Structure formats: C-alpha cells, structure tokens
From TrEMBL:
SUPFAM superfamilies per UniProt: Trypsin-like serine proteases
UniProt-listed InterPro entries: Peptidase_S1_PA
Organism listed in the record: Plakobranchus ocellatus
The name this protein goes by in its record: Peptidase S1 domain-containing protein
Pfam families: Trypsin_2 (PF13365)
Length: 239
C-alpha cells in the first residue's frame, strides 16, 4: 500500500529516491532454521545446513521506514562512529527485513534486521549490556541537580554519529499513556529516529540532591511526532 497521500515522502512512492534517518538498537537474538533474508538462496542455505542467524531489532521514526516494503530496501549501518569507520572496516551494514510494529500517531516503528555475522551480533549484545548498565548508574545513586538535560544521538545528513545537547523545555500530555517532550536539543535532516535521552526530576524542586528518571525515546522532528525540538522542525546542528 505504501505511504498514504499527503504523508511525508508520499510523493516519492514507487521510486528509489534515497533518504537518511537514524535509529537505535533494542535487542539482538540468535535463531536457527530458515532466515528471513530477502535473498532466497541464503534462506535455503540456512534451512538445509542448519546455519544460525541473528535478528537485530531497532526503533526509528515511522516517517523514516514506513512499512515492510521499505524495510526490505533499507541498509542499516552500525558502528559508524566517525569518519574513519568506513575506511578501517569498523562500520558494518545490516539488511532490513520487516517492520514489526508501527505507531503512526507517535511517528515511531520497530524494524527487524538480520545478520549472519556472529562476531558482530555478539559485539552488539555487549554494547546493549554496557548501555543498560550505564542507564542504571545514571539512576543510582541520586545525582546532583544539573538541569533538565536532553541529548540526541543521531546521524545528521547520513554522516557519522553526532551527539547534541540541550534541555527539556516542556512535557506535554500526548495521550492517555504517553507524554510528549519538547526540547531545545538541535537536530538536522537525518536525525529523525535517533535516540533521545532526557533526565527528568522524579522528586520535584527544593532539594540539592535529586533522583533522576531517564526518558528513552525516538526523535521526531515533525509536529505529529511524540518528541520534537522547540522549533517543530529540523534545524542546523550546532558544533
């Protein structure tokens, strides 16, 4: 079916017009049997030889990858940390295979990629474990108040990873289950879908030492998205 008329990039339906976005990985799991690769030969090889494959599930913005058809045309670069990542072979590329879930209203979706590179899969699992530990250390013990810090990790214009800092400007009610963050953190085209980390006061003002809740979400620059910067549009990245 593709993108509905009037939706962002809907005018490019049926074309191979490339565009860039960002994402963050949620989980990496090992599987056996038939692999969901678009390459049928690879599927047969997995099933007949009992080869293992790994699913890499990630979150991005719905307007970056809209449906499974787009996911199957998507290349996901990981470990694109700086300008030398490509030349030194550090950066690896995964194949997108399926959109697992989509929230049109919040402009977010979960996408599955696959790889047969066990070393890469194990390395990604280690990164996730380190990230989860770091999140725990932010929450425990309480931190001295430093303001309502908000950062975005993304790949603006399809370039190497960038981290931009700002502050949470407001928290609005989005629906019965979710809030919307408005923040001053700068972004560029290509930042949509990137990881948003925001520190939010759990206790309230009036104390020097506070316990902070870490909000983790997807960056959406469009007005209908769950989280956006204060200008409601993508603006120049400040370095």
């Amino acid at each position: 079916m593709g993108r509905p008329k009037g939706y962002i990039f809907s005018s490019s339906r049926g074309s191979s017009t490339p565009h860039y976005g960002s994402a963050y990985i949620n989980s990496v799991e090992k599987h056996s049997g038939s692999c969901p690769c678009c390459d049928c030969h690879q599927k047969m090889q997995c099933a007949s030889l009992g080869m293992s494959w790994w699913s890499v599930d990630l979150t991005t913005a719905c307007h970056v990858i809209f449906d499974t058809q787009e996911a199957q045309c998507t290349a996901v670069d990981v470990f694109y940390d700086d300008e030398t990542s490509k030349s030194c072979g550090r950066m690896k590329t995964l194949k997108g295979v399926e959109v697992l879930a989509r929230n049109f209203e919040a402009d977010s979706c979960k996408v599955r990629c696959v790889t047969h590179n066990e070393h890469l899969a194990l390395e990604l699992q280690q990164v996730i474990s380190k990230y989860n530990y770091k999140v725990w250390t932010v929450r425990n013990p309480p931190l001295r108040a430093v303001g309502r810090l908000c950062l975005i990790v993304s790949h603006p214009h399809g370039q190497a990873k960038k981290v931009t800092l700002g502050k949470v400007e407001a928290v609005q009610k989005f629906n019965s289950a979710k809030n919307r963050l408005i923040y001053s953190t700068d972004s560029c085209p290509g930042s949509s879908g990137g990881l948003v980390l925001a520190l939010q006061d759990d206790i309230g003002p009036g104390t020097e030492w506070l316990t902070w809740a870490l909000w983790t979400s997807v960056h959406c620059s469009k007005a209908q998205g769950l989280n956006r910067n204060r200008s409601n549009c993508e603006i120049q990245l400040l370095t």
